[in-house]
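Researcher: Re-running this chain for the archive, since the previous output was lost when a drive failed. Same request as before.
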Amino acid sequence: MSPPAPDWGAGSVGPGGAITHRTYARAGLFGNPSDQYGGRTIAFSLENFYAEVTLTPAADGDTSVRIQPHPVYDSTEYGSLGELVTRTSTQGLYGGVRLLLAAVKRFAEHCAAHGIPLRSPAGGAAGGSGCGDGDAAQQQPGAGLDPASMDAGPDSGQTVSGLRGFTLSYDTTVPRQTGLSGSSAIIYSAIKCLAQWYGVPASSLPPAARPGLVLSVEAEELGVAAGLQDRVIQVYGGFVHMDFGPGGCYSRLDPGCLPVGRMYLMFSDNPSESGKVHSGVKAKWLAGDPQVRALMSQVMECGVEGLRLLLGPPDEGAGSGARTGASADAAVTGGAADGPVAAGGGRPVREERLAQLMNRNADLRRALFGDAVLGRSNIRMLELARSVGAGANFSGSGGAVVVLCPGGQAQAEALRAAAEAEGFTLLPVRLGPELEHLPPASLPRT
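Model: Regenerated C-alpha coordinates:
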Protein backbone atom coordinates (compact mmCIF):
# COMPACT_ATOMS: atom_id res chain seq x y z
CA MET A 1 0.00 0.00 0.00
CA SER A 2 1.42 3.40 -0.94
CA PRO A 3 1.92 6.05 1.76
CA PRO A 4 -0.82 8.65 2.01
CA ALA A 5 -0.38 11.49 -0.47
CA PRO A 6 -3.90 12.90 -0.78
CA ASP A 7 -2.63 16.23 -2.11
CA TRP A 8 -1.78 14.77 -5.53
CA GLY A 9 -5.23 15.38 -6.93
CA ALA A 10 -7.62 13.05 -8.65
CA GLY A 11 -5.49 9.94 -8.88
CA SER A 12 -7.33 6.69 -8.29
CA VAL A 13 -6.21 3.62 -6.33
CA GLY A 14 -7.39 0.33 -7.79
CA PRO A 15 -7.12 -3.36 -6.94
CA GLY A 16 -3.83 -4.35 -5.37
CA GLY A 17 -3.00 -0.72 -4.61
CA ALA A 18 -2.52 0.23 -8.28
CA ILE A 19 -2.30 4.01 -8.72
CA THR A 20 -3.63 5.71 -11.85
CA HIS A 21 -3.26 9.36 -12.82
CA ARG A 22 -4.72 11.16 -15.82
CA THR A 23 -3.47 14.25 -17.66
CA TYR A 24 -5.44 16.05 -20.35
CA ALA A 25 -4.24 17.25 -23.73
CA ARG A 26 -3.97 20.97 -24.37
CA ALA A 27 -4.58 23.44 -27.18
CA GLY A 28 -2.65 26.64 -27.73
CA LEU A 29 -4.84 29.60 -28.67
CA PHE A 30 -2.57 32.65 -29.00
CA GLY A 31 1.15 33.40 -28.87
CA ASN A 32 2.43 29.92 -29.61
CA PRO A 33 5.38 29.17 -29.99
CA SER A 34 6.75 32.25 -28.21
CA ASP A 35 6.94 30.36 -24.90
CA GLN A 36 10.46 29.30 -25.94
CA TYR A 37 11.47 32.90 -26.56
CA GLY A 38 10.32 34.87 -23.52
CA GLY A 39 6.91 35.61 -24.99
CA ARG A 40 3.27 35.33 -23.96
CA THR A 41 0.81 32.58 -24.73
CA ILE A 42 -2.79 31.68 -23.99
CA ALA A 43 -3.83 28.03 -23.92
CA PHE A 44 -6.46 25.75 -22.46
CA SER A 45 -6.75 22.21 -21.20
CA LEU A 46 -8.56 19.93 -23.63
CA GLU A 47 -10.85 17.44 -21.93
CA ASN A 48 -11.52 15.65 -25.22
CA PHE A 49 -8.28 13.68 -24.92
CA TYR A 50 -6.06 12.42 -22.12
CA ALA A 51 -3.24 10.09 -21.18
CA GLU A 52 -3.28 7.78 -18.17
CA VAL A 53 -0.41 6.06 -16.40
CA THR A 54 -0.90 3.21 -13.93
CA LEU A 55 1.64 2.17 -11.32
CA THR A 56 1.06 -1.42 -10.19
CA PRO A 57 2.94 -2.40 -7.01
CA ALA A 58 5.33 -5.33 -7.08
CA ALA A 59 5.13 -8.02 -4.42
CA ASP A 60 6.69 -7.28 -1.05
CA GLY A 61 10.43 -7.80 -1.29
CA ASP A 62 10.48 -7.37 -5.08
CA THR A 63 12.52 -4.27 -5.93
CA SER A 64 12.22 -4.63 -9.71
CA VAL A 65 11.03 -1.68 -11.78
CA ARG A 66 9.29 -2.68 -14.99
CA ILE A 67 8.07 -0.59 -17.90
CA GLN A 68 5.23 -2.28 -19.73
CA PRO A 69 5.07 -1.62 -23.49
CA HIS A 70 1.74 -0.52 -24.91
CA PRO A 71 0.25 -3.29 -27.09
CA VAL A 72 -0.31 -0.88 -30.00
CA TYR A 73 2.04 2.09 -29.69
CA ASP A 74 5.09 0.03 -28.64
CA SER A 75 4.44 -2.96 -30.86
CA THR A 76 7.43 -4.72 -32.41
CA GLU A 77 5.37 -7.17 -34.43
CA TYR A 78 3.31 -6.34 -37.52
CA GLY A 79 1.09 -8.41 -39.77
CA SER A 80 2.87 -7.33 -42.92
CA LEU A 81 5.39 -4.91 -44.33
CA GLY A 82 2.52 -2.67 -45.41
CA GLU A 83 1.10 -2.58 -41.88
CA LEU A 84 4.51 -1.65 -40.46
CA VAL A 85 4.88 1.22 -42.93
CA THR A 86 1.33 2.48 -42.35
CA ARG A 87 1.47 2.37 -38.56
CA THR A 88 4.90 3.94 -38.25
CA SER A 89 3.93 6.64 -40.75
CA THR A 90 0.82 7.65 -38.79
CA GLN A 91 1.98 6.86 -35.23
CA GLY A 92 5.71 7.54 -35.46
CA LEU A 93 8.69 5.37 -34.66
CA TYR A 94 8.55 5.87 -30.90
CA GLY A 95 5.95 4.80 -28.38
CA GLY A 96 5.63 5.67 -24.72
CA VAL A 97 8.24 3.35 -23.20
CA ARG A 98 11.03 5.89 -23.62
CA LEU A 99 8.80 8.56 -22.01
CA LEU A 100 8.21 6.42 -18.92
CA LEU A 101 11.88 5.45 -18.65
CA ALA A 102 12.98 9.06 -18.87
CA ALA A 103 10.30 10.18 -16.39
CA VAL A 104 11.36 7.65 -13.75
CA LYS A 105 15.04 8.52 -14.17
CA ARG A 106 14.47 12.25 -13.99
CA PHE A 107 12.06 12.00 -11.05
CA ALA A 108 14.59 10.02 -8.99
CA GLU A 109 17.41 12.42 -9.84
CA HIS A 110 15.27 15.46 -9.06
CA CYS A 111 14.31 14.10 -5.66
CA ALA A 112 17.95 13.31 -4.90
CA ALA A 113 19.18 16.73 -5.97
CA HIS A 114 16.55 18.56 -3.90
CA GLY A 115 16.71 16.43 -0.78
CA ILE A 116 13.24 14.97 -1.23
CA PRO A 117 13.17 11.58 0.52
CA LEU A 118 11.40 8.64 -1.08
CA ARG A 119 9.46 6.50 1.38
CA SER A 120 9.34 2.82 0.70
CA PRO A 121 5.69 1.73 0.40
CA ALA A 122 6.69 -1.42 2.28
CA GLY A 123 7.92 0.65 5.24
CA GLY A 124 11.07 2.59 6.03
CA ALA A 125 12.48 5.44 3.99
CA ALA A 126 15.17 6.13 1.45
CA GLY A 127 17.40 9.16 1.66
CA GLY A 128 16.35 10.45 5.05
CA SER A 129 13.65 10.39 7.68
CA GLY A 130 10.24 11.85 7.14
CA CYS A 131 8.61 13.33 4.03
CA GLY A 132 10.00 16.85 4.02
CA ASP A 133 7.36 19.47 3.39
CA GLY A 134 9.40 22.43 2.24
CA ASP A 135 9.14 24.00 -1.21
CA ALA A 136 11.41 22.08 -3.57
CA ALA A 137 12.76 25.33 -4.93
CA GLN A 138 14.03 26.27 -1.45
CA GLN A 139 15.72 22.97 -0.61
CA GLN A 140 19.46 22.65 -0.97
CA PRO A 141 20.87 20.29 -3.62
CA GLY A 142 22.63 17.31 -2.15
CA ALA A 143 20.56 17.24 1.02
CA GLY A 144 19.03 13.89 0.23
CA LEU A 145 19.82 11.03 -2.12
CA ASP A 146 23.08 11.13 -4.04
CA PRO A 147 22.43 9.99 -7.63
CA ALA A 148 25.83 8.32 -7.64
CA SER A 149 24.76 6.05 -4.78
CA MET A 150 21.34 5.17 -6.11
CA ASP A 151 22.31 1.60 -6.87
CA ALA A 152 25.45 1.16 -4.85
CA GLY A 153 24.41 -2.03 -3.09
CA PRO A 154 22.81 -3.05 0.21
CA ASP A 155 25.62 -1.74 2.41
CA SER A 156 26.02 1.69 0.83
CA GLY A 157 23.76 3.54 3.24
CA GLN A 158 21.46 6.02 1.50
CA THR A 159 20.30 4.20 -1.64
CA VAL A 160 17.03 3.61 -3.39
CA SER A 161 17.90 0.03 -4.28
CA GLY A 162 15.85 -1.42 -1.43
CA LEU A 163 12.61 0.31 -2.31
CA ARG A 164 9.67 -1.84 -3.30
CA GLY A 165 9.33 -2.12 -7.06
CA PHE A 166 6.48 -1.54 -9.45
CA THR A 167 5.31 -1.77 -13.04
CA LEU A 168 4.42 1.33 -15.04
CA SER A 169 1.97 1.10 -17.92
CA TYR A 170 0.16 3.72 -19.95
CA ASP A 171 -2.74 4.34 -22.27
CA THR A 172 -3.71 7.42 -24.25
CA THR A 173 -6.61 8.77 -26.26
CA VAL A 174 -4.58 11.70 -27.61
CA PRO A 175 -4.31 11.39 -31.40
CA ARG A 176 -0.74 10.59 -32.26
CA GLN A 177 1.61 13.30 -33.52
CA THR A 178 -0.98 16.06 -33.52
CA GLY A 179 0.90 18.53 -31.33
CA LEU A 180 -1.71 18.22 -28.56
CA SER A 181 0.92 17.48 -25.92
CA GLY A 182 0.28 13.77 -25.66
CA SER A 183 3.89 12.99 -24.72
CA SER A 184 4.03 15.41 -21.81
CA ALA A 185 0.63 14.13 -20.68
CA ILE A 186 2.17 10.66 -20.30
CA ILE A 187 5.22 12.06 -18.51
CA TYR A 188 3.25 14.19 -16.05
CA SER A 189 0.89 11.31 -15.30
CA ALA A 190 3.91 9.12 -14.54
CA ILE A 191 5.43 11.74 -12.23
CA LYS A 192 2.16 12.02 -10.28
CA CYS A 193 2.04 8.23 -9.90
CA LEU A 194 5.64 8.12 -8.68
CA ALA A 195 5.11 10.97 -6.22
CA GLN A 196 2.06 9.30 -4.72
CA TRP A 197 3.77 5.90 -4.63
CA TYR A 198 6.83 7.19 -2.80
CA GLY A 199 4.87 9.42 -0.43
CA VAL A 200 6.20 12.71 -1.79
CA PRO A 201 3.78 15.44 -0.70
CA ALA A 202 2.75 18.04 -3.23
CA SER A 203 4.44 20.70 -1.10
CA SER A 204 7.81 19.08 -1.85
CA LEU A 205 7.11 19.24 -5.58
CA PRO A 206 4.85 22.31 -5.84
CA PRO A 207 2.93 23.22 -8.99
CA ALA A 208 5.42 25.94 -9.93
CA ALA A 209 8.23 23.36 -10.09
CA ARG A 210 6.38 20.70 -12.08
CA PRO A 211 6.32 22.21 -15.60
CA GLY A 212 10.10 22.58 -15.54
CA LEU A 213 10.54 19.01 -14.33
CA VAL A 214 8.32 17.63 -17.10
CA LEU A 215 10.10 19.78 -19.69
CA SER A 216 13.49 18.54 -18.48
CA VAL A 217 12.40 14.96 -19.17
CA GLU A 218 11.62 15.82 -22.78
CA ALA A 219 14.31 18.40 -23.53
CA GLU A 220 17.28 17.03 -21.60
CA GLU A 221 16.61 13.30 -21.58
CA LEU A 222 14.94 12.90 -24.99
CA GLY A 223 16.23 15.90 -26.94
CA VAL A 224 12.77 17.20 -27.84
CA ALA A 225 12.51 20.87 -28.84
CA ALA A 226 9.78 22.33 -26.65
CA GLY A 227 8.82 25.15 -24.30
CA LEU A 228 7.02 25.40 -20.98
CA GLN A 229 3.52 26.26 -22.26
CA ASP A 230 2.18 22.72 -22.60
CA ARG A 231 3.47 21.60 -19.23
CA VAL A 232 2.08 24.70 -17.51
CA ILE A 233 -1.43 24.16 -18.82
CA GLN A 234 -1.33 20.45 -17.95
CA VAL A 235 -0.27 21.20 -14.38
CA TYR A 236 -2.72 24.06 -13.75
CA GLY A 237 -5.58 23.03 -16.04
CA GLY A 238 -8.42 25.18 -17.33
CA PHE A 239 -7.77 28.38 -19.29
CA VAL A 240 -4.43 30.12 -18.62
CA HIS A 241 -2.44 33.16 -19.72
CA MET A 242 1.32 32.68 -19.51
CA ASP A 243 3.95 35.43 -19.46
CA PHE A 244 7.43 33.96 -19.99
CA GLY A 245 9.27 37.27 -19.90
CA PRO A 246 11.50 38.48 -17.04
CA GLY A 247 9.38 38.62 -13.91
CA GLY A 248 6.49 36.99 -15.76
CA CYS A 249 3.83 34.83 -14.23
CA TYR A 250 0.91 32.53 -14.98
CA SER A 251 -2.65 33.75 -14.45
CA ARG A 252 -6.13 32.31 -14.64
CA LEU A 253 -8.61 33.30 -17.34
CA ASP A 254 -12.34 32.96 -16.74
CA PRO A 255 -13.68 30.19 -19.02
CA GLY A 256 -16.71 32.41 -19.57
CA CYS A 257 -14.71 34.76 -21.78
CA LEU A 258 -13.87 31.90 -24.17
CA PRO A 259 -16.63 31.12 -26.71
CA VAL A 260 -16.26 27.38 -26.17
CA GLY A 261 -19.59 26.61 -27.81
CA ARG A 262 -18.21 27.88 -31.12
CA MET A 263 -14.75 26.34 -30.85
CA TYR A 264 -13.61 23.16 -32.53
CA LEU A 265 -10.54 21.02 -32.95
CA MET A 266 -9.57 19.80 -36.41
CA PHE A 267 -6.86 17.20 -36.79
CA SER A 268 -5.29 15.02 -39.39
CA ASP A 269 -5.26 11.25 -39.59
CA ASN A 270 -1.83 11.45 -41.23
CA PRO A 271 0.17 13.72 -38.90
CA SER A 272 3.89 14.39 -38.53
CA GLU A 273 6.46 14.24 -35.70
CA SER A 274 5.72 17.48 -33.84
CA GLY A 275 9.08 17.85 -32.09
CA LYS A 276 10.91 18.33 -35.38
CA VAL A 277 8.95 21.44 -36.29
CA HIS A 278 10.91 23.65 -33.89
CA SER A 279 14.33 22.71 -35.28
CA GLY A 280 16.06 25.46 -37.24
CA VAL A 281 14.06 28.41 -35.93
CA LYS A 282 15.58 28.16 -32.45
CA ALA A 283 19.10 28.15 -33.89
CA LYS A 284 18.34 31.24 -35.98
CA TRP A 285 16.84 32.96 -32.96
CA LEU A 286 19.92 32.25 -30.86
CA ALA A 287 22.11 33.52 -33.70
CA GLY A 288 20.19 36.80 -33.68
CA ASP A 289 18.57 36.42 -37.10
CA PRO A 290 16.72 39.75 -37.54
CA GLN A 291 13.79 38.33 -39.51
CA VAL A 292 13.16 35.52 -37.02
CA ARG A 293 13.44 37.95 -34.12
CA ALA A 294 10.99 40.38 -35.72
CA LEU A 295 8.46 37.67 -36.57
CA MET A 296 8.66 36.14 -33.10
CA SER A 297 8.02 39.55 -31.55
CA GLN A 298 4.82 39.74 -33.58
CA VAL A 299 3.85 36.24 -32.40
CA MET A 300 4.35 37.43 -28.81
CA GLU A 301 2.07 40.37 -29.53
CA CYS A 302 -0.67 37.92 -30.51
CA GLY A 303 -0.58 36.68 -26.91
CA VAL A 304 -0.88 40.24 -25.60
CA GLU A 305 -3.66 41.18 -28.02
CA GLY A 306 -5.51 37.96 -27.26
CA LEU A 307 -5.51 38.84 -23.57
CA ARG A 308 -6.90 42.30 -24.33
CA LEU A 309 -9.70 40.87 -26.42
CA LEU A 310 -10.62 38.17 -23.92
CA LEU A 311 -10.70 40.52 -20.92
CA GLY A 312 -12.12 43.59 -22.64
CA PRO A 313 -15.81 44.43 -23.18
CA PRO A 314 -17.38 42.14 -25.81
CA ASP A 315 -17.98 44.90 -28.37
CA GLU A 316 -14.75 46.85 -27.94
CA GLY A 317 -11.28 46.43 -29.40
CA ALA A 318 -12.31 47.10 -32.99
CA GLY A 319 -9.19 49.07 -33.74
CA SER A 320 -6.62 46.58 -32.52
CA GLY A 321 -8.65 43.56 -33.61
CA ALA A 322 -9.08 44.80 -37.15
CA ARG A 323 -5.44 45.80 -37.30
CA THR A 324 -4.15 42.38 -36.33
CA GLY A 325 -6.83 40.38 -38.09
CA ALA A 326 -8.16 41.51 -41.43
CA SER A 327 -4.88 43.01 -42.63
CA ALA A 328 -2.85 40.07 -41.29
CA ASP A 329 0.34 41.16 -42.99
CA ALA A 330 -0.24 40.07 -46.56
CA ALA A 331 3.42 40.81 -47.20
CA VAL A 332 4.38 38.17 -44.65
CA THR A 333 2.05 35.43 -45.85
CA GLY A 334 1.42 36.13 -49.49
CA GLY A 335 -2.09 37.40 -48.78
CA ALA A 336 -3.28 34.21 -47.05
CA ALA A 337 -5.17 36.22 -44.43
CA ASP A 338 -7.49 37.85 -46.93
CA GLY A 339 -10.24 35.34 -46.33
CA PRO A 340 -13.96 35.73 -45.72
CA VAL A 341 -13.59 36.46 -42.01
CA ALA A 342 -15.28 39.87 -42.01
CA ALA A 343 -17.33 41.43 -39.26
CA GLY A 344 -21.03 41.65 -39.84
CA GLY A 345 -24.05 39.47 -40.28
CA GLY A 346 -24.99 39.90 -36.63
CA ARG A 347 -22.00 37.92 -35.38
CA PRO A 348 -20.50 38.86 -32.00
CA VAL A 349 -17.81 41.49 -32.55
CA ARG A 350 -15.33 40.03 -30.08
CA GLU A 351 -15.59 36.57 -31.62
CA GLU A 352 -14.82 38.08 -35.01
CA ARG A 353 -11.77 39.79 -33.56
CA LEU A 354 -10.62 36.57 -31.89
CA ALA A 355 -11.02 34.64 -35.14
CA GLN A 356 -9.02 37.25 -37.04
CA LEU A 357 -6.26 37.15 -34.44
CA MET A 358 -6.09 33.36 -34.67
CA ASN A 359 -5.54 33.71 -38.41
CA ARG A 360 -2.87 36.31 -37.78
CA ASN A 361 -1.01 34.03 -35.37
CA ALA A 362 -1.16 31.15 -37.85
CA ASP A 363 0.17 33.32 -40.67
CA LEU A 364 3.12 34.39 -38.56
CA ARG A 365 3.92 30.78 -37.73
CA ARG A 366 3.88 29.95 -41.43
CA ALA A 367 6.29 32.79 -42.08
CA LEU A 368 8.60 31.55 -39.32
CA PHE A 369 8.74 27.86 -40.19
CA GLY A 370 7.73 27.75 -43.84
CA ASP A 371 5.05 25.63 -45.47
CA ALA A 372 7.52 22.89 -46.38
CA VAL A 373 8.26 22.29 -42.69
CA LEU A 374 4.67 22.63 -41.51
CA GLY A 375 3.41 20.29 -44.19
CA ARG A 376 0.60 20.39 -46.71
CA SER A 377 -1.90 18.74 -44.38
CA ASN A 378 -1.50 21.42 -41.72
CA ILE A 379 -1.80 24.23 -44.23
CA ARG A 380 -4.89 22.64 -45.74
CA MET A 381 -6.69 22.66 -42.39
CA LEU A 382 -6.15 26.41 -42.14
CA GLU A 383 -7.42 26.87 -45.68
CA LEU A 384 -10.56 24.85 -45.02
CA ALA A 385 -11.38 26.87 -41.90
CA ARG A 386 -10.96 30.15 -43.74
CA SER A 387 -12.99 28.91 -46.69
CA VAL A 388 -16.12 28.99 -44.50
CA GLY A 389 -15.20 32.23 -42.71
CA ALA A 390 -13.83 30.67 -39.52
CA GLY A 391 -10.63 31.55 -37.70
CA ALA A 392 -7.97 28.89 -37.10
CA ASN A 393 -4.59 28.61 -35.45
CA PHE A 394 -2.17 25.76 -34.97
CA SER A 395 -2.99 24.17 -31.62
CA GLY A 396 0.61 23.09 -31.18
CA SER A 397 3.53 21.96 -33.29
CA GLY A 398 1.49 20.47 -36.10
CA GLY A 399 -1.18 17.93 -36.89
CA ALA A 400 -4.13 19.85 -35.42
CA VAL A 401 -5.68 23.31 -35.47
CA VAL A 402 -8.08 25.00 -33.09
CA VAL A 403 -11.00 26.67 -34.88
CA LEU A 404 -13.42 29.43 -33.90
CA CYS A 405 -16.67 29.64 -35.87
CA PRO A 406 -18.16 33.11 -35.21
CA GLY A 407 -21.03 32.22 -37.52
CA GLY A 408 -22.24 29.50 -35.19
CA GLN A 409 -23.59 26.04 -35.93
CA ALA A 410 -24.27 26.49 -39.65
CA GLN A 411 -20.70 27.62 -40.21
CA ALA A 412 -19.38 24.70 -38.17
CA GLU A 413 -21.44 22.19 -40.14
CA ALA A 414 -20.14 23.60 -43.42
CA LEU A 415 -16.61 23.21 -42.11
CA ARG A 416 -17.28 19.69 -40.87
CA ALA A 417 -18.48 18.62 -44.31
CA ALA A 418 -15.45 20.16 -45.99
CA ALA A 419 -13.05 18.66 -43.43
CA GLU A 420 -14.46 15.15 -43.54
CA ALA A 421 -14.42 15.19 -47.35
CA GLU A 422 -10.63 15.53 -47.14
CA GLY A 423 -10.05 13.05 -44.32
CA PHE A 424 -9.91 15.45 -41.37
CA THR A 425 -11.83 15.14 -38.10
CA LEU A 426 -13.68 18.08 -36.51
CA LEU A 427 -14.72 17.88 -32.85
CA PRO A 428 -16.32 20.42 -30.49
CA VAL A 429 -13.84 21.65 -27.88
CA ARG A 430 -14.42 20.54 -24.28
CA LEU A 431 -12.53 22.71 -21.82
CA GLY A 432 -10.61 20.78 -19.18
CA PRO A 433 -10.99 21.38 -15.43
CA GLU A 434 -8.96 23.82 -13.35
CA LEU A 435 -6.47 21.85 -11.26
CA GLU A 436 -4.26 24.29 -9.33
CA HIS A 437 -4.77 27.81 -8.02
CA LEU A 438 -3.61 30.79 -10.07
CA PRO A 439 -4.22 34.52 -9.62
CA PRO A 440 -6.78 36.04 -12.00
CA ALA A 441 -5.48 37.50 -15.24
CA SER A 442 -5.59 41.26 -15.76
CA LEU A 443 -5.42 43.51 -18.78
CA PRO A 444 -1.86 44.15 -20.00
CA ARG A 445 -0.49 47.62 -19.46
CA THR A 446 -0.41 49.76 -22.58
